[in-house]
Amino acid sequence: MSVAEFSLFGMPRLELDGRAVEPGRKKSSALLYYMAAERGPLERSAAAGLLWPEFPPDRARGSLRAALLDIERAAGARLFAAGGSCLAFDDGLELRVDAAEFIRLSDLGFASRDGDVIPLLKSAADLYRGPFLSGFYLKDAYEFEDWQLRMSDRFRHRAARVLERLSEQYRLAGMLDEAADTAERLIAAAPLHEAGHRLVMLSLYDRGDAVAASMHYEEYAASLDRQLGIKPEPSLRDLHDAIRAAPARAPRRRADRLPTWISSFVGREAEIGALTRLLAERRLVTIVGAGGIGKTRLAVEAARSIADRYPDGIAYAELGAADDEDVLPRIASSMNLPLWPREDAVEFAERSRHRRFLLVMNTCDAALGACAAIAEALLSASPESAIVATSLEAIGADGEAVMELAPLGVPPDGAPADEALRSPAVRLFIDRASGFMPTASLEREAPDIARVCAAVDGLPLAIELAAARARALSIGDLARSVSTPLSLLSDDAGSPDARHRSLLDLFDWSWGFLDAGEERSLTALSVCRGGFGVEAVEAITGSPVARTMYSLVSKSMVAVVRNRPGVSRWKLLEPLRRYAEARLEASGGGRAARAVHRDYYIGLAARLGSGLSVITDAEALDAVQDDWANIVCAARSAIDGGDTAGPLSALLRLRRFIVIRNKGRDLRTLLAAAGLRSSSGDDTAAAALAELSALSAWLGEDVDEVRRQSGLASSLWRGLGDEASARRSELLGLGLGASEPEEAEVALARLRDSADWFSSRDEPWLRCEALFWIGSRLVAVGTIDWSLLRSVYDEASAAVDAIGDLEGRSSRAWLGLWVSRWKGDRDGVRSALREMGDCDAILGLGQSPAVLREWAGEDIVEESAAIATRPGHPASAIDTLIDAADIWITRGECDRAVSALEQARTVAAGQDAPFKACFLLYYEALTLFAADRRAEAFSLVEGELAGLEGGTALHRRASCFLAHLSLGLDDEPRALELHRRLAAAPWDDPDPEEVRQRDFSIRYLTAEESPLEAARFVADSLRRSPDRISTFEIVYLGAIAARAMAAAARPAEAYEAALGIGPGIRWRITPYHAVERYLVAALARRLAAALSPRERARVEALHYADPKRDGIEAYLVQAKDRLARLIGASFLTDRRSGATPAMEATARPI
Fold this sequence. Notes:
Elements: E1 2-7, E2 13-16, E3 19-20, H1 26-38, E4 42-43, H2 44-51, H3 57-75, E5 86-87, E6 93-97, H4 98-111, H5 117-127, H6 142-172, H7 176-189, H8 194-206, H9 210-228, H10 234-245, H11 269-281, E7 284-288, H12 295-305, E8 314-318, H13 324-334, H14 345-350, E9 358-362, H15 368-381, E10 386-391, E11 401-404, H16 417-422, H17 424-433, H18 439-444, H19 446-455, H20 460-469, H21 475-481, H22 503-511, H23 516-525, E12 532-533, H24 534-541, H25 545-554, E13 559-561, E14 569-571, H26 574-587, H27 590-609, H28 619-626, H29 628-640, H30 645-653, H31 655-660, H32 664-677, H33 683-699, H34 703-719, H35 723-735, H36 741-760, H37 764-780, H38 786-803, H39 806-823, H40 826-843, H41 858-869, H42 874-890, H43 894-910, H44 914-930, H45 934-946, H46 953-966, H47 972-984, H48 992-1006, H49 1011-1024, H50 1031-1047, H51 1051-1061, H52 1063-1066, H53 1074-1089, H54 1093-1100, H55 1107-1110, H56 1112-1132, H57 1141-1144
Parallel strand pairs: 1-6, 7-10, 7-11, 8-9, 9-10
Antiparallel strand pairs: 1-2, 2-3, 4-5, 12-14, 13-14
Helix pairs in contact: 1-3, 2-3, 3-43, 4-5, 4-6, 5-6, 6-7, 6-8, 7-8, 8-9, 8-10, 9-10, 11-12, 13-15, 17-19, 17-20, 19-21, 23-26, 27-29, 27-30, 29-30, 29-32, 30-33, 32-33, 33-34, 33-35, 34-35, 35-36, 35-37, 36-37, 37-38, 37-39, 38-39, 39-40, 40-41, 41-42, 42-43, 43-44, 44-45, 44-46, ...
């Protein structure tokens, strides 16, 4: 039985069998939290209305289905029982909900009258970690918001009762420290709770501090008067008077209080648990980590959380500026114990023998030996006590456990806003900046905040200092500036600790603990990006790795990276790296260090590339991934220095890695720099540049540029006499060539020739690649030669099996999907999907299962969507999500389709692919259009257009989409205006498809004004390319002809033309031709209304070819012949006389 643990107090979360479950949508999480809190079954209609009140019932239910799917994907299991009109958690799921347990324990505590009352109430109080669903907000769900507010108030009042009763019980039991702490917690949660203030005053008085009790009352009274203009209740005033008149009590000795912070503690919940567990096992724990990483705050918050273990209190000793002689006096003072003259650590420890305390020794760096000696003495004399120390390195005491503190987790690059908001680093930034900016506004800036946090490597102090700058800078400006000067990250207001007023001060202080050799090694390594391995350390520093890294890691100047078993790697936190690099430049060693770095990593790239000819596991790819940031940096350094051939040659060897791990953005940046600096006389560099440019264009979805650069590269390589490189570079261009039959045949023949050529030269992977491109071209042609495809599949499959290449297995599976479709083999489709999923899990590679459009099985759609959500090649994820959306739209599940497309847009946005993202927005709009939500579709694109810069290619693309959608809004004047405005705009490099779409639309909209001109356009188009006309073109030509014939008073011929083209856009129920389907259907209805019933029946009884029934070729042949006949009959002859005098003078024969 699986266990689902819900934490609803504080920041909500769900763990399933110990694993965090994080749905992609906030409303999915909201549904989970509501069901966990209410426990009982919930009508599906009620759930839909609760979370989507603004939607019509059908759409709300669709959104609910999408949320349930989102939950199931995130959990990896079904959480809700299947079927039924009510939602309920699955019977096989064990629910553990902190809110329910809190109610149960508090009820038992309130009812108890024996010795169990304190444990029960304390357990309940420990569960209440903060307000109900703290920090969780929904937009446009007022019923959920009202419920959340009611529940929050209910639990807050109950928590106040629990804390009040617990404090009273502690006081009755003589546990005065616990009574005071609980009462203070009560008034922290409810500042106006008078019973809490009464208990604080009594606890202070009981401990012998009547003055503090009186001062507490006076401060509270002043606060009430200032805020509300009222006085405390008479009972509290009477208590104050009684305390002032009572005789003083003897004070009880108590350790100094821990330091407190105004700010909340964010992002280290797991570390507190780990530290407290470690303290229970090992009584001396030293927290080590870089300066500013949060060691002090963690130690203090962890100590506070386990205060009840130590009845003699918690002592806090600040040792930052202490030398060996100062350490013991400071510790004695913190423990409220006198230090006798000439008393040493052992003698002092003997006087604490019977005490049970927790000591926090903060910042031990300047006196490691003295701290170790005192810790050993205290723990030897007091076996039930414990010590937490903080330092850059271990203090070196016997029995010491070391806890290495890492930076806060930052979201991955391009993560969606919801994921970014869950990361500890972003949560810390928002918490610190929320003092002067609304939290909701900050949450909308989550992607830029994530960039800030990533720029400082999740270092808490740097994040807090950056958040303080948000008072003066916008988040976007802060994200752009935070990666430059360290002086920006300073606390102008002044921190109590001079070391923490800026990162410069902190790093200056830390630097003082390095010797000369450590300084040289650290500054040399500062030129590395992202991390470095054993060989790199020795090459760059010139020192043995064991000695160099041990000392730097021990002093927390370098962090250990444990991302691959058996591989030793390290990194500098980015703020510290920039600091060390600045010191390197100041010393005059920057140029030499960068030259060593450049030569080493360009050589490494060439060596790693040789291991990618055949990829049987992820090891070779991971090795490149580890040092990719360094390779990019080295390549840019070489290019900027005038050497393009070396880095381009190295990158060419890594071409498979660049494709599989989708490094298109980095490649584009390097190629832009290389293009500016390449020498016109270096043909080798030019050829490599062209081949890599083709690769970059492919990753960026620019097919025309792929063809151009691929052809150029092939020509240049042949000019150099390198036939192998020439054939390799032209594979992309041939594989993505035009789809016209003649060009496709030429491309297929050349690919076949290259496959045979590579086979004869023992190039097994390039042979496989050529075969896969043959299969891809066969699929892309549209009229698939199934027997040839099967033959290519069998040959490619055998070739892949011979070398065991994983990318080849994935491509083989993609071809297998099409072959399985041809055979009608449903199990084969499922098997191919799973094989792609296996490869994706290993390599981050997948292929788009476009064949899914032919299968409507729920299980296959779900498997496809699961592949898309795994990390991997973004283009694969995008295409897979489009395919899933297509299936869902055929089932009428528009909301699920839109959800899939929104996910695809998020992936595209994260990969810096704006044109792909723009297309996906348009496809989403078409999906809405297909669901008869036409106005919503138009508004979606119109809103996107408003946010784009005018005059850009992206703006023109979105404008074309908007103009196209406008055709289906029954507002032809606006549609015509938009299209004519686009036609008049200057276009540097127009997209032929966009031009064709625009011209056809204008002809359609003006056909009734100029019917003869429209008829000539149709006739010329049919005569000019009768064998190359596409389904899209025949549909528009038929619509234009129908409108022209209707204007020429030929309604029967017009109706026949409209009916003849209809099957061409109905046979595939995808959103692609949603606008055209609407136009043709509306046109046919309008034309039918102009006919008599008898005439309409006659036209409808004619035979109309259907692509799905008769094949696409039969449909196109009949449609073209019909249009030619109807145009000729309408514009060249009259029914009665055989002539059309009004048009005869200008008509031309067809």
